[in-house]
Automatic annotation (TrEMBL):
Residues 225-246 are annotated as: Disordered. It comes from Sphingobium vermicomposti. InterPro entries: DNA-binding_RecF, DNA-binding_RecF_CS, P-loop_NTPase, RecF/RecN/SMC_N, RecF_2. This is DNA replication and repair protein RecF. The RecF protein is involved in DNA metabolism; it is required for DNA replication and normal SOS inducibility. RecF binds preferentially to single-stranded, linear DNA. It also seems to bind ATP. Coiled coil: none annotated. HAMAP family: RecF. Residues 2-338 form the RecF/RecN/SMC N-terminal domain.
Amino acid sequence: MIGRLTLSDFRNHADALIVPDHAFIVLTGENGAGKTNILEAVSMLAPGRGLRGAALRDMTRQGGPGSFGIAAEVDGVMLGTGVAPGAPDRRQVRIGGVASSANALADHLAIVWLTPAMDRLFMDSPGGRRRFLDRLTLALHPGHAVHSARYEAAMRARNRLLTNLPAADPAWLAALEAQMDEHGAALGGARADLVDRLSAELAAQPDQPFARPVLEIAQEDRAEEPLASRLARERRRDAAAGRTLSGPHRNDLAVVHAAKGQAAALCSTGEQKALLLSILLAHAALVAARRGQPPVLLLDEVAAHLDPMRRTALFDRLAMTGGQVWMTGTEDSLFSDLSSATRFSVCAGRVGVPQVNPRS
Ligand SMILES: Nc1ncnc2c1ncn2[C@@H]1O[C@H](COP(=O)(O)OP(=O)(O)OP(=O)(O)O)[C@@H](O)[C@H]1O
Protein backbone atom coordinates (compact mmCIF):
# COMPACT_ATOMS: atom_id res chain seq x y z
CA MET A 1 0.00 0.00 0.00
CA ILE A 2 1.12 3.50 -0.76
CA GLY A 3 1.29 5.42 2.47
CA ARG A 4 2.40 8.87 1.37
CA LEU A 5 2.87 10.23 -2.14
CA THR A 6 4.68 13.40 -3.13
CA LEU A 7 5.02 14.90 -6.61
CA SER A 8 7.24 17.75 -7.65
CA ASP A 9 7.05 19.37 -11.08
CA PHE A 10 5.28 16.33 -12.48
CA ARG A 11 2.89 17.26 -15.35
CA ASN A 12 0.65 20.07 -14.02
CA HIS A 13 1.53 19.40 -10.36
CA ALA A 14 4.23 21.77 -9.11
CA ASP A 15 4.07 20.31 -5.66
CA ALA A 16 1.54 17.79 -4.34
CA LEU A 17 1.20 15.64 -1.24
CA ILE A 18 -1.32 12.83 -0.87
CA VAL A 19 -1.57 10.80 2.29
CA PRO A 20 -4.23 8.10 1.95
CA ASP A 21 -6.05 7.03 5.11
CA HIS A 22 -8.15 4.28 3.55
CA ALA A 23 -7.80 1.52 1.00
CA PHE A 24 -9.96 3.60 -1.36
CA ILE A 25 -8.64 6.92 -2.63
CA VAL A 26 -11.02 8.99 -4.72
CA LEU A 27 -9.77 11.95 -6.76
CA THR A 28 -12.43 14.21 -8.17
CA GLY A 29 -12.25 17.43 -10.14
CA GLU A 30 -12.97 19.07 -13.46
CA ASN A 31 -11.59 17.90 -16.77
CA GLY A 32 -7.92 18.77 -17.00
CA ALA A 33 -7.54 19.26 -13.24
CA GLY A 34 -4.69 16.75 -12.95
CA LYS A 35 -6.39 13.61 -11.61
CA THR A 36 -5.02 11.20 -14.23
CA ASN A 37 -1.62 12.80 -13.80
CA ILE A 38 -1.64 11.60 -10.18
CA LEU A 39 -2.47 8.03 -11.23
CA GLU A 40 0.25 8.24 -13.87
CA ALA A 41 2.71 9.35 -11.18
CA VAL A 42 1.81 6.31 -9.06
CA SER A 43 2.24 4.06 -12.11
CA MET A 44 5.77 5.43 -12.55
CA LEU A 45 6.70 3.82 -9.24
CA ALA A 46 6.57 0.47 -11.02
CA PRO A 47 8.73 -0.64 -13.96
CA GLY A 48 7.75 0.54 -17.43
CA ARG A 49 6.57 3.76 -18.99
CA GLY A 50 3.50 4.33 -16.86
CA LEU A 51 -0.16 4.15 -17.70
CA ARG A 52 0.06 6.56 -20.61
CA GLY A 53 3.20 4.99 -22.09
CA ALA A 54 4.52 8.56 -22.33
CA ALA A 55 8.06 9.84 -22.82
CA LEU A 56 9.78 11.00 -19.63
CA ARG A 57 10.46 14.49 -21.01
CA ASP A 58 6.69 14.99 -21.51
CA MET A 59 6.18 14.42 -17.80
CA THR A 60 8.29 17.37 -16.67
CA ARG A 61 6.11 20.34 -15.82
CA GLN A 62 5.95 22.91 -18.57
CA GLY A 63 7.45 26.12 -17.22
CA GLY A 64 9.14 24.18 -14.42
CA PRO A 65 12.85 23.50 -13.78
CA GLY A 66 13.06 20.68 -16.38
CA SER A 67 13.10 17.93 -13.77
CA PHE A 68 10.42 16.00 -11.92
CA GLY A 69 10.26 13.83 -8.85
CA ILE A 70 7.79 11.26 -7.54
CA ALA A 71 8.27 9.66 -4.15
CA ALA A 72 6.14 7.34 -2.07
CA GLU A 73 6.37 5.23 0.99
CA VAL A 74 5.28 1.73 -0.02
CA ASP A 75 4.92 -0.76 2.80
CA GLY A 76 7.60 1.07 4.75
CA VAL A 77 10.11 1.40 1.87
CA MET A 78 10.73 4.78 0.20
CA LEU A 79 10.48 4.52 -3.58
CA GLY A 80 11.46 7.46 -5.76
CA THR A 81 11.76 8.17 -9.45
CA GLY A 82 12.22 11.18 -11.67
CA VAL A 83 14.56 12.99 -14.01
CA ALA A 84 17.21 15.59 -13.25
CA PRO A 85 17.53 18.96 -15.02
CA GLY A 86 19.51 18.58 -18.25
CA ALA A 87 18.78 14.85 -18.54
CA PRO A 88 15.04 14.72 -19.34
CA ASP A 89 15.20 11.23 -20.88
CA ARG A 90 17.23 9.50 -18.16
CA ARG A 91 15.06 7.95 -15.52
CA GLN A 92 16.48 7.85 -12.03
CA VAL A 93 15.20 5.44 -9.43
CA ARG A 94 15.88 5.21 -5.72
CA ILE A 95 14.72 2.40 -3.47
CA GLY A 96 15.19 2.91 0.25
CA GLY A 97 17.41 5.90 -0.57
CA VAL A 98 19.77 3.86 -2.76
CA ALA A 99 20.12 4.38 -6.53
CA SER A 100 18.56 1.44 -8.31
CA SER A 101 17.03 0.27 -11.58
CA ALA A 102 13.44 0.71 -12.73
CA ASN A 103 13.04 -3.07 -13.00
CA ALA A 104 13.88 -3.45 -9.31
CA LEU A 105 10.73 -1.48 -8.48
CA ALA A 106 8.79 -4.65 -9.36
CA ASP A 107 9.94 -6.18 -6.06
CA HIS A 108 8.10 -3.46 -4.15
CA LEU A 109 5.02 -2.49 -6.10
CA ALA A 110 2.64 -4.18 -8.52
CA ILE A 111 0.05 -2.11 -10.29
CA VAL A 112 -3.02 -2.97 -12.34
CA TRP A 113 -4.62 -0.08 -14.20
CA LEU A 114 -7.66 0.84 -16.22
CA THR A 115 -7.71 3.97 -18.39
CA PRO A 116 -10.38 5.48 -20.66
CA ALA A 117 -8.09 4.65 -23.61
CA MET A 118 -8.90 0.98 -22.88
CA ASP A 119 -12.62 1.58 -23.45
CA ARG A 120 -12.07 0.68 -27.12
CA LEU A 121 -9.90 -2.35 -26.43
CA PHE A 122 -12.37 -4.85 -27.90
CA MET A 123 -13.23 -2.66 -30.89
CA ASP A 124 -9.78 -1.58 -32.01
CA SER A 125 -7.10 -3.48 -33.91
CA PRO A 126 -5.57 -6.75 -32.60
CA GLY A 127 -2.28 -4.94 -31.84
CA GLY A 128 -3.79 -3.16 -28.82
CA ARG A 129 -5.24 -6.41 -27.47
CA ARG A 130 -1.90 -8.17 -27.99
CA ARG A 131 -0.11 -5.44 -26.01
CA PHE A 132 -2.78 -5.74 -23.29
CA LEU A 133 -2.36 -9.53 -23.24
CA ASP A 134 1.41 -9.16 -23.04
CA ARG A 135 1.21 -6.61 -20.22
CA LEU A 136 -0.93 -9.00 -18.20
CA THR A 137 1.30 -11.95 -19.09
CA LEU A 138 4.43 -10.08 -18.02
CA ALA A 139 3.05 -9.66 -14.50
CA LEU A 140 2.97 -13.46 -14.12
CA HIS A 141 5.89 -14.43 -16.37
CA PRO A 142 8.75 -11.95 -15.86
CA GLY A 143 10.76 -13.54 -18.73
CA HIS A 144 8.03 -12.64 -21.22
CA ALA A 145 9.58 -9.29 -22.18
CA VAL A 146 12.90 -10.91 -23.07
CA HIS A 147 11.28 -13.55 -25.27
CA SER A 148 9.16 -10.88 -26.89
CA ALA A 149 12.16 -8.64 -27.66
CA ARG A 150 14.22 -11.55 -29.04
CA TYR A 151 11.35 -12.83 -31.17
CA GLU A 152 10.76 -9.35 -32.64
CA ALA A 153 14.48 -8.82 -33.30
CA ALA A 154 14.79 -12.16 -35.13
CA MET A 155 11.66 -11.41 -37.15
CA ARG A 156 12.90 -7.95 -38.16
CA ALA A 157 16.22 -9.47 -39.25
CA ARG A 158 14.39 -12.18 -41.23
CA ASN A 159 12.16 -9.60 -42.92
CA ARG A 160 15.24 -7.59 -43.92
CA LEU A 161 16.99 -10.68 -45.26
CA LEU A 162 13.94 -11.73 -47.26
CA THR A 163 14.15 -8.51 -49.28
CA ASN A 164 17.10 -10.15 -51.19
CA LEU A 165 15.56 -13.59 -51.17
CA PRO A 166 17.27 -15.39 -54.00
CA ALA A 167 20.63 -14.20 -52.73
CA ALA A 168 19.85 -14.43 -49.00
CA ASP A 169 21.95 -16.94 -47.04
CA PRO A 170 19.59 -19.89 -46.27
CA ALA A 171 21.62 -20.91 -43.22
CA TRP A 172 21.25 -17.43 -41.74
CA LEU A 173 17.52 -17.44 -42.49
CA ALA A 174 17.19 -20.87 -40.86
CA ALA A 175 19.05 -19.63 -37.76
CA LEU A 176 16.69 -16.65 -37.44
CA GLU A 177 13.66 -18.89 -37.96
CA ALA A 178 14.94 -21.23 -35.24
CA GLN A 179 15.19 -18.24 -32.87
CA MET A 180 11.64 -17.20 -33.78
CA ASP A 181 10.51 -20.77 -33.12
CA GLU A 182 12.20 -20.91 -29.71
CA HIS A 183 11.07 -17.49 -28.44
CA GLY A 184 7.71 -17.75 -30.18
CA ALA A 185 6.97 -21.00 -28.34
CA ALA A 186 7.82 -19.31 -25.03
CA LEU A 187 5.61 -16.32 -25.90
CA GLY A 188 2.71 -18.48 -26.95
CA GLY A 189 3.11 -20.74 -23.90
CA ALA A 190 3.12 -17.83 -21.45
CA ARG A 191 0.11 -16.18 -23.10
CA ALA A 192 -1.81 -19.47 -23.09
CA ASP A 193 -0.96 -20.01 -19.43
CA LEU A 194 -2.25 -16.52 -18.58
CA VAL A 195 -5.50 -17.11 -20.44
CA ASP A 196 -5.96 -20.50 -18.75
CA ARG A 197 -5.39 -19.02 -15.32
CA LEU A 198 -7.61 -15.98 -15.99
CA SER A 199 -10.34 -18.32 -17.24
CA ALA A 200 -10.14 -20.42 -14.07
CA GLU A 201 -10.28 -17.26 -11.95
CA LEU A 202 -13.21 -15.86 -13.95
CA ALA A 203 -15.11 -19.12 -13.66
CA ALA A 204 -14.88 -18.82 -9.88
CA GLN A 205 -16.36 -15.29 -9.87
CA PRO A 206 -20.09 -14.58 -9.71
CA ASP A 207 -21.30 -13.47 -13.13
CA GLN A 208 -24.03 -11.12 -11.95
CA PRO A 209 -24.41 -8.22 -12.28
CA PHE A 210 -20.97 -8.06 -13.82
CA ALA A 211 -20.54 -9.71 -17.18
CA ARG A 212 -18.38 -12.81 -17.28
CA PRO A 213 -16.05 -12.93 -20.27
CA VAL A 214 -14.81 -16.05 -22.02
CA LEU A 215 -11.25 -15.60 -23.24
CA GLU A 216 -9.35 -17.31 -25.99
CA ILE A 217 -6.16 -16.63 -27.90
CA ALA A 218 -7.17 -16.32 -31.51
CA GLN A 219 -4.58 -17.62 -33.91
CA GLU A 220 -4.52 -17.23 -37.66
CA ASP A 221 -4.47 -20.99 -37.89
CA ARG A 222 -3.71 -23.80 -35.51
CA ALA A 223 -1.24 -25.73 -37.61
CA GLU A 224 0.66 -28.31 -35.59
CA GLU A 225 3.73 -27.83 -37.77
CA PRO A 226 6.66 -26.28 -35.89
CA LEU A 227 7.01 -22.58 -36.61
CA ALA A 228 10.57 -22.91 -37.95
CA SER A 229 9.63 -25.36 -40.71
CA ARG A 230 6.54 -23.34 -41.54
CA LEU A 231 8.57 -20.16 -41.85
CA ALA A 232 11.10 -21.95 -44.06
CA ARG A 233 8.25 -23.05 -46.33
CA GLU A 234 6.72 -19.57 -46.45
CA ARG A 235 9.80 -17.54 -47.29
CA ARG A 236 8.65 -16.72 -50.80
CA ARG A 237 5.18 -15.70 -49.66
CA ASP A 238 6.56 -13.55 -46.82
CA ALA A 239 9.10 -11.94 -49.19
CA ALA A 240 6.26 -10.97 -51.54
CA ALA A 241 4.22 -9.61 -48.62
CA GLY A 242 7.23 -7.74 -47.21
CA ARG A 243 6.56 -9.18 -43.72
CA THR A 244 6.22 -12.41 -41.79
CA LEU A 245 2.65 -13.65 -42.00
CA SER A 246 2.77 -16.59 -39.56
CA GLY A 247 3.68 -16.64 -35.90
CA PRO A 248 2.56 -15.48 -32.46
CA HIS A 249 2.97 -11.81 -33.46
CA ARG A 250 -0.36 -12.32 -35.26
CA ASN A 251 -2.21 -13.64 -32.17
CA ASP A 252 -5.28 -11.83 -30.94
CA LEU A 253 -7.25 -11.99 -27.70
CA ALA A 254 -10.83 -13.05 -28.45
CA VAL A 255 -13.34 -12.06 -25.77
CA VAL A 256 -16.96 -13.21 -25.67
CA HIS A 257 -19.74 -12.12 -23.30
CA ALA A 258 -20.57 -15.53 -21.83
CA ALA A 259 -24.24 -14.98 -20.98
CA LYS A 260 -25.03 -13.41 -24.35
CA GLY A 261 -22.76 -15.61 -26.42
CA GLN A 262 -21.75 -12.43 -28.22
CA ALA A 263 -18.35 -11.05 -29.15
CA ALA A 264 -17.29 -8.28 -26.76
CA ALA A 265 -16.93 -5.85 -29.66
CA LEU A 266 -20.69 -6.16 -30.31
CA CYS A 267 -21.64 -5.42 -26.69
CA SER A 268 -22.70 -2.00 -25.42
CA THR A 269 -20.15 0.47 -24.09
CA GLY A 270 -21.10 -0.25 -20.47
CA GLU A 271 -21.12 -4.01 -21.05
CA GLN A 272 -17.64 -3.78 -22.58
CA LYS A 273 -16.44 -1.82 -19.58
CA ALA A 274 -17.88 -4.48 -17.24
CA LEU A 275 -16.16 -7.25 -19.25
CA LEU A 276 -12.87 -5.41 -19.11
CA LEU A 277 -13.21 -4.83 -15.38
CA SER A 278 -13.94 -8.53 -14.86
CA ILE A 279 -10.73 -9.41 -16.69
CA LEU A 280 -8.70 -6.86 -14.71
CA LEU A 281 -10.10 -8.01 -11.37
CA ALA A 282 -9.32 -11.62 -12.24
CA HIS A 283 -5.83 -10.53 -13.21
CA ALA A 284 -5.45 -8.61 -9.93
CA ALA A 285 -6.38 -11.82 -8.08
CA LEU A 286 -3.65 -13.74 -9.96
CA VAL A 287 -1.08 -11.04 -9.21
CA ALA A 288 -2.11 -11.11 -5.54
CA ALA A 289 -1.70 -14.90 -5.41
CA ARG A 290 1.75 -14.68 -7.01
CA ARG A 291 3.05 -11.89 -4.78
CA GLY A 292 1.28 -12.75 -1.57
CA GLN A 293 -0.37 -9.32 -1.49
CA PRO A 294 -2.85 -7.52 -3.71
CA PRO A 295 -1.63 -5.09 -6.37
CA VAL A 296 -2.49 -1.38 -6.23
CA LEU A 297 -5.38 -0.68 -8.61
CA LEU A 298 -5.41 2.57 -10.58
CA LEU A 299 -8.85 3.05 -12.10
CA ASP A 300 -9.17 6.21 -14.16
CA GLU A 301 -12.74 7.34 -14.77
CA VAL A 302 -13.86 3.90 -13.70
CA ALA A 303 -17.48 4.83 -13.02
CA ALA A 304 -18.07 6.26 -16.49
CA HIS A 305 -20.55 4.17 -18.54
CA LEU A 306 -21.50 1.99 -15.56
CA ASP A 307 -25.10 2.08 -14.32
CA PRO A 308 -25.64 2.49 -10.54
CA MET A 309 -26.16 -1.26 -10.02
CA ARG A 310 -22.87 -2.16 -11.72
CA ARG A 311 -21.10 0.68 -9.91
CA THR A 312 -22.22 -0.66 -6.56
CA ALA A 313 -21.21 -4.19 -7.60
CA LEU A 314 -17.82 -2.87 -8.68
CA PHE A 315 -17.20 -1.17 -5.34
CA ASP A 316 -18.17 -4.40 -3.53
CA ARG A 317 -15.77 -6.40 -5.68
CA LEU A 318 -13.01 -3.85 -5.17
CA ALA A 319 -13.47 -4.01 -1.42
CA MET A 320 -13.05 -7.81 -1.61
CA THR A 321 -9.62 -7.46 -3.26
CA GLY A 322 -8.28 -6.12 0.03
CA GLY A 323 -5.83 -3.90 -1.86
CA GLN A 324 -5.46 -0.17 -2.33
CA VAL A 325 -7.64 1.33 -5.04
CA TRP A 326 -7.15 4.78 -6.59
CA MET A 327 -10.12 6.08 -8.56
CA THR A 328 -10.87 9.28 -10.44
CA GLY A 329 -14.05 10.91 -11.63
CA THR A 330 -15.43 14.32 -12.48
CA GLU A 331 -18.23 14.09 -9.91
CA ASP A 332 -18.15 13.12 -6.28
CA SER A 333 -21.68 11.71 -6.57
CA LEU A 334 -20.36 8.79 -8.66
CA PHE A 335 -18.64 7.52 -5.53
CA SER A 336 -21.38 8.27 -3.00
CA ASP A 337 -21.99 4.52 -2.47
CA LEU A 338 -18.47 3.98 -1.19
CA SER A 339 -18.73 3.56 2.53
CA SER A 340 -15.14 4.44 3.34
CA ALA A 341 -12.65 6.31 1.22
CA THR A 342 -10.22 9.19 1.41
CA ARG A 343 -11.49 11.82 -1.00
CA PHE A 344 -9.36 14.54 -2.52
CA SER A 345 -10.52 17.31 -4.78
CA VAL A 346 -8.06 18.22 -7.51
CA CYS A 347 -8.21 21.65 -9.12
CA ALA A 348 -5.74 23.04 -11.66
CA GLY A 349 -2.81 21.00 -10.41
CA ARG A 350 -3.57 21.50 -6.73
CA VAL A 351 -4.71 18.72 -4.44
CA GLY A 352 -7.16 19.74 -1.71
CA VAL A 353 -7.11 18.57 1.87
CA PRO A 354 -8.48 15.05 2.30
CA GLN A 355 -12.07 14.48 3.22
CA VAL A 356 -12.94 11.19 4.78
CA ASN A 357 -16.50 10.10 4.00
CA PRO A 358 -17.99 13.56 3.95
CA ARG A 359 -21.47 12.07 3.83
CA SER A 360 -21.21 9.55 6.62
N1 LIG B 1 4.19 18.32 -18.81
C1 LIG B 1 3.11 19.02 -18.44
N2 LIG B 1 3.25 20.22 -17.82
C2 LIG B 1 2.17 20.92 -17.43
N3 LIG B 1 0.90 20.52 -17.64
C3 LIG B 1 0.71 19.34 -18.26
C4 LIG B 1 1.81 18.53 -18.69
N4 LIG B 1 1.30 17.42 -19.27
C5 LIG B 1 -0.03 17.54 -19.20
N5 LIG B 1 -0.40 18.67 -18.60
C6 LIG B 1 -1.74 19.17 -18.31
O1 LIG B 1 -2.29 18.44 -17.25
C7 LIG B 1 -3.68 18.68 -17.26
C8 LIG B 1 -4.40 17.63 -16.48
O2 LIG B 1 -4.36 16.39 -17.11
P1 LIG B 1 -5.09 15.10 -16.53
O3 LIG B 1 -5.08 14.13 -17.65
O4 LIG B 1 -4.52 14.68 -15.24
O5 LIG B 1 -6.57 15.64 -16.29
P2 LIG B 1 -7.80 14.96 -15.55
O6 LIG B 1 -8.02 15.70 -14.27
O7 LIG B 1 -7.61 13.50 -15.46
O8 LIG B 1 -8.96 15.34 -16.56
P3 LIG B 1 -10.13 14.50 -17.28
O9 LIG B 1 -11.26 14.50 -16.32
O10 LIG B 1 -10.43 15.35 -18.46
O11 LIG B 1 -9.60 13.16 -17.61
C9 LIG B 1 -4.06 18.85 -18.73
O12 LIG B 1 -4.76 20.06 -18.87
C10 LIG B 1 -2.70 18.96 -19.44
O13 LIG B 1 -2.65 20.03 -20.33
